[in-house]
Specification:
By secondary structure, the protein is of the alpha+beta class. The mean pLDDT is 95. The chain is 17% helix and 33% strand. It has two helices and eleven strands; from the N terminus they run βββαβββββαβββ. The chain folds into two domains: 47 residues, no CATH class; 61 residues, Roll (CPE0013-like fold), CATH 3.10.530.10. The strands form four sheets. Strands 5-7-11-10 form a four-stranded antiparallel beta sheet, with helices on one face. A three-stranded antiparallel beta sheet has the order 1-2-3, covered by helices on one side. The protein has a two-stranded antiparallel ribbon with strand order 4-8. The structure holds iron/sulfur cluster (SF4). The site of iron/sulfur cluster has 11 residues, from α1.
């Protein structure tokens, strides 16, 4: 017996128009159809959100001897389900100056294939 189709709804965040998207998923989880998009970016966004949603992650971490913490972020989006683990890895960082903007502070964080980088320089 086959399972039922599932419809997932999203608001596209790729531009200010905010199209309301609906992705129809087959019983196996594959996207069968997307409706509501005003352009191709919305189609790609809906397929991604329905099958493997991703988000950027950012945090502020201390730098030894510096009063101001350093903001760090993932260089690319990571799977939404791994955000907590990625944030924990970021918050476990123990940094020392100097740090340059763009420095890779963690490579392949949580085996996502994504690096954590510094967003500014600390001399
Ligand atoms: S589907 Fe296209 S037009 Fe609609 S919000 Fe997304 S990017 Fe903008």
């Amino acid at each position: 017996m086959q399972g039922a189709r599932e419809v997932k709804s999203f608001t596209c965040i790729c531009c200010p128009l905010g199209c309301r998207l609906e992705a129809t998923l087959a019983p196996g989880g594959a996207v069968e159809a997307v409706a509501g998009q005003g352009c191709r970016r919305g189609l790609e966004y809906a397929v991604g959100e329905a099958t493997n949603p991703v988000r950027m992650a950012s945090a502020v971490v201390p730098v030894a001897g510096c009063l101001e913490p350093l903001s760090v972020k993932t260089a690319q989006p990571v799977p939404k389900g791994q955000i907590r683990a990625v944030l924990d890895a970021m918050l476990a960082l123990r940094l020392e100056a100097p740090v340059c903007a763009g420095d890779v502070l963690l490579a392949d964080v949580c085996e996502t294939g994504v690096s954590v980088v510094a967003t500014k320089s600390v001399p």
